[in-house]
């Protein structure tokens, strides 16, 4: 079937993308979900890819099996072996040094490379290099961007649109955080607001899922963060499109040439659900959009994800595909075959007696959505949550929000704060959350005692929640619960 696809120019050559002649790429923090996608991309181009990461994980082991060289100690000698005469830019245009902003500033390799005057590229800058001449779709927002961008990539792929997609999670449809194509015409990317990284992108279509306050260690206050989102909208190409909730569009400062559209699962919008129901454990919706007017609604769209927030993410993805002129029935079919993202409300055990779900939620709004989804799917069941707070600053800034969201649980098991890139802040511990949580049963447990605690807990529906290293317990908890039932 021929398609009216609005994607402008053809895919660029490597020279147009700013990566011509690159033969060796060195990563500081290669094991991060965003960094690993870029590492896989350069590996696919037959570049030699070498990287440092602090910890061996399932993901880094997978990267190693794909031919990427990874070491786990801060090894300046290795850098000198690879580059015998580091002289700033003199290492040549055939080499890229890429780092994540999450790398500690006292990392020995980071310090050494800076001392040598080497050009270090942020992950976001490299995404800008790769994407600059593609038709680019960028998904931004405090939460929902990983799911939405992976739905978009899946829909485009199912509709035979050749694309590259860099995702912030492991898509269960692709079993990867990177989608490649032999002849890509479209670039799909998450636009990360952390460290204002999304300002390196110039998308043709942008979608903003949400602008809840977050990363206040970077922005200082919510108004500064909203200003950054307006700057991101200002990076949209002339005549490009911005899709978001109407109240977000109203809050942003936008150029007059940017074409806006609104979407919503509950509110009146340009693209919205007119009927939402649950059939056989799945959400099913009817959609009204400008392109469907005159031909009736697009009906009986199956959304294979739990939670009303994921229905809204799917509507956002539909809005992008619809704006590109893709066939509505093909979009509908693609939405019905979307499987989800690793650690996004991922069900590991599901029986009549016992359910175990793992979720990446680490912001109060995300926690609320995850817990409410569990309550909606399993009414009358006891909901137990294991939560690992992520970052001292986020805990300090949102302690009241965390307490309010976690109080929706019937039982809370709280782990210590996962520090990631941060040093401890005096007085900021998991206890300040625990003291404000109102659910009757709550306690703090050390990681070494977690499995014993789960074993001694009467579980009906169990959620593991957080963005730190809580995921290392998932296989063990799953095995324990299967034996227990």
What would you note in describing this structure?
With 485 residues, this protein is α/β, with parallel strands linked by helices. The protein has 17 helices and 21 strands. The strands form three sheets. Strands 8-7-9-6-10-11-12-13-14-15 form a ten-stranded mixed beta sheet, with helices on both faces. 44% of the residues are buried. The model is unreliable at 1-5 and 7-17 (pLDDT under 50).
Low-confidence parts: 1-5, 7-17
- The average pLDDT score comes to 88
Characterize the biggest β-sheet.
Answer: 10 strands, mixed
* Share in helix: 25-40%
- Shape assignment: globular
Instruction: Enumerate the strands of the largest sheet in spatial order, edge to edge or round the barrel.
Output: 8-7-9-6-10-11-12-13-14-15
| Helix segment tally | 17
Structural class call reads alpha/beta
* Alpha-carbon distance between the two ends: 50 Å
Tell me briefly what this model is:
It contains 17 helices and 21 strands. The chain has 485 residues and is α/β, with parallel strands linked by helices.
Name its key features.
alpha/beta; ten-stranded mixed beta sheet; six-stranded mixed beta sheet; 21 strands; disordered N terminus
Give a topology summary.
Blueprint: E1 24-28, H1 33-44, E2 48-52, H2 58-65, E3 69-71, H3 76-82, E4 95-99, H4 108-115, E5 120-122, H5 123-131, E6 135-140, H6 145-158, E7 163-171, E8 176-179, E9 186-191, E10 205-208, H7 216-219, H8 222-234, E11 241-244, H9 246-251, E12 259-264, E13 271-279, E14 282-288, E15 298-303, H10 308-323, H11 328-336, E16 346-350, E17 355-359, H12 364-377, E18 383-387, H13 392-397, H14 399-406, E19 411-414, H15 431-434, E20 441-444, H16 450-455, E21 461-465, H17 474-484
Parallel strand pairs: 1-2, 1-4, 2-3, 4-5, 6-9, 6-10, 7-9, 10-11, 11-12, 12-13, 17-21, 18-19, 18-21, 19-20
Antiparallel strand pairs: 7-8, 13-14, 14-15, 16-17
Helix pairs in contact: 6-10, 6-11, 10-11, 12-14
């Amino acid at each position: 079937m021929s398609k009216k696809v609005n994607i402008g120019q053809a895919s660029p050559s490597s020279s147009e993308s700013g990566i011509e002649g690159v033969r060796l790429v060195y990563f500081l923090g290669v094991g991060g979900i965003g960094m690993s996608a870029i590492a896989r991309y350069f590996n696919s181009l037959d570049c030699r890819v070498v990287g440092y990461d602090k910890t061996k994980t399932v993901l880094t082991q997978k990267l190693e099996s794909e031919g990427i060289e990874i070491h786990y100690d801060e090894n300046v000698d290795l850098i000198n072996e690879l580059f015998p005469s580091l002289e700033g830019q003199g290492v040549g245009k055939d080499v890229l040094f890429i780092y994540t902003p999450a790398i500690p500033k006292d990392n020995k390799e980071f310090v050494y490379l800076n001392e040598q005057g080497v050009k270090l590229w942020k992950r976001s800058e490299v995404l800008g290099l790769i994407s600059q001449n593609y038709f680019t779709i960028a998904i931004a927002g405090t939460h929902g961007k990983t799911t939405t961008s992976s739905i978009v990539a899946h829909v485009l792929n199912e509709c035979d649109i050749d694309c590259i997609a860099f995702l912030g999670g492991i898509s269960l449809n692709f079993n990867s955080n990177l989608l490649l194509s032999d002849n890509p015409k479209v670039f799909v990317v998450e636009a990360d607001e952390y460290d204002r990284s999304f300002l390196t992108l110039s998308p043709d279509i942008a979608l903003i899922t949400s602008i809840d306050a977050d990363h206040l260690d970077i922005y200082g206050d919510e108004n500064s963060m909203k200003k950054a989102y307006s700057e991101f909208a200002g990076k949209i190409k002339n005549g490009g499109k911005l899709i978001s909730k109407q109240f977000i569009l109203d809050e942003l400062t936008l150029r007059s040439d940017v074409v806006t559209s609104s979407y919503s699962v509950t509110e009146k919008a340009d693209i919205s659900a007119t009927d939402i129901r649950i059939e056989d454990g799945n959400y099913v919706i009817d959609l009204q959009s400008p392109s469907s007017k005159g031909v009736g609604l697009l009906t009986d769209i199956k959304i294979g994800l739990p939670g009303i927030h994921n229905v809204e993410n799917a509507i956002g993805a539909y809005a992008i595909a619809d704006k590109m002129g893709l066939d509505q029935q093909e979009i509908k079919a693609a939405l019905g075959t979307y499987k989800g993202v690793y650690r996004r409300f991922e069900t590991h055990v599901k029986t009549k007696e016992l359910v175990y779900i793992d979720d990446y939620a680490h912001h109060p709004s995300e926690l609320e959505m995850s817990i409410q989804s569990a309550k909606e799917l399993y009414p009358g069941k006891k909901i137990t949550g294991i939560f690992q707070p992520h970052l001292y600053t986020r805990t300090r800034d949102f302690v009241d929000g965390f307490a309010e969201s976690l109080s929706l649980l019937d039982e809370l098991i709280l782990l210590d704060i996962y520090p990631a890139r941060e040093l401890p802040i005096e007085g900021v511990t998991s206890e300040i959350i625990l003291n404000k949580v109102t659910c009757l049963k709550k306690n703090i447990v050390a990681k070494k005692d977690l499995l014993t605690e789960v074993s001694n807990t009467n579980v009906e529906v169990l959620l593991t929640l957080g963005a730190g290293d809580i995921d290392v317990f998932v296989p063990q908890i799953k095995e324990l619960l299967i034996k227990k039932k």
